[in-house]
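Escalation from tier 1.

The customer reports that the assembly of two entities below gives different C-alpha cells on two consecutive runs. Tier 1 could not reproduce it. I'm attaching the input and our single run for tier 2 to review.
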Amino acid sequence: MTDVSYQHQTQEGEASLGDYFALMKPRVMQLVVFTALVGLLAAPTGVHPVIGFASILFVAIGAGASGALNMWWDADIDGVMTRTAKRPVPAGKVTADEAKALGFALSGLSVMMLALSANLLAAALLAFTIFFYVVIYSMWLKRWTPQNIVIGGAAGAFPPVIGWVIATGAMSIEAWLMFALIFMWTPPHFWALALFMKEDYHNAGVPMLTVTHGRKSTRKHVLAYTVPLALLAVGTAFTSIGGPVYLAVAVVLNALFLKGAYDISHRDETQAEADGYAVEKAFFRLSLWYLFAHFGAILIEALLPAAWGIWA
Amino acid sequence: MSIRAEHEIHQRRKGRNIGVGLMLAGFVVLILALTFVKITSGDFEMPRIEEGQ
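Tier 1 run:
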C-alpha cells in the first residue's frame, strides 16, 4: 500500500512547457505573425530589421496572451466540443487560473514592449485587439449572438493594421483594406467549419448560425458573404498594395471560392452526409489557402520593386 | 540508501526550467539589441537637462 494517492485533478505548476505554449494557440499565432509581417513589409516606410523582428514578436506574444485568456474563459465549452476537448485546460494539463495568469501577464508585457520597440499607436491597437478578442468576442458575443464570428472576426483582422502602424506610425486606407479582407473572410471560413463539425456547437450551447438559424440558412449565408469578399479581394488589386501578381492570385482563388460557396449553398444535408461533407471540408481547406495566398501576393507585390532594383 | 527516483515529473520540471531560462536569456539579448539600435539610430536624442540644474 502506498501513502501517495493518485490524483486525477490538475496539479498546479506541473505542466510541461509545451502545454503552456499550446495555451497560446500557436496555429492562430502563425496567421497573426504572417499577416502582421505582410502589413509591416507592405507599408511605404521601412523599419530597422531588429525593431521589425522585435515588434512582430511582441504582436505574436499579444496574440498568444489573448489565446490563453480565451482558453481560461471558454474552458467549460472547450471540454464539451470534440474539436477543442484536447486543449490544455479541458485536458487537465494546465489549470484555468494558470491560463488566466499567463494571459494577463503576457498581455501587459506584449503591449508595454510594443510601445517601447515601435510606437504608442501600435501598442494601443494591440491592447484593443486583445480586449476585443477576450472581452467583446469570448466573454460577450460568442455565447450570445449568431453574429459572434461576424463581429468577433475583427480581432483576427487587426494584425496587418498593427504591422502597418509599426512601420509608419499611422493608419491608412491600405491597412484597412487588409483588415477588411480578413474581416470578410472570417464568417464563410467558420460557417463552413460549423457545417461539418455538426453537433459540436449545439452541444456546447454556442449560438452559431447553424444552431440558431439552421444549416440551410447557414449555407445561404456562406454565399452571401463570399460575394462581397470576392469583390473586395479582386478590387484590392487596383490599390497601391495590389498589382498584377496579386490580381492573378485573387482572380483564380476568388473564382474557386465563389464556386465552393455556390456549391455549398445549393446542396442539402442529405447530399452532404452522403459524401461526408466533402464540399464543406474542401471549402474550409481552400479558405486557409485563400488567406495565405492573398497576403503572400501582397507581400510579393511589396518585395517586387526591391527585386527589380537588384536586377536592374 | 538514498532515494534516487527520477520521476517523469522531474524531467518535465527540468525541461520547463531550461525552456524558461532560455526564453529569459533571449529576452535579455533582444532588449540589448533593441537598445543598441535605438540609441545608434539618427533620430535619437538624449534628454535635455534644463539650464541651472
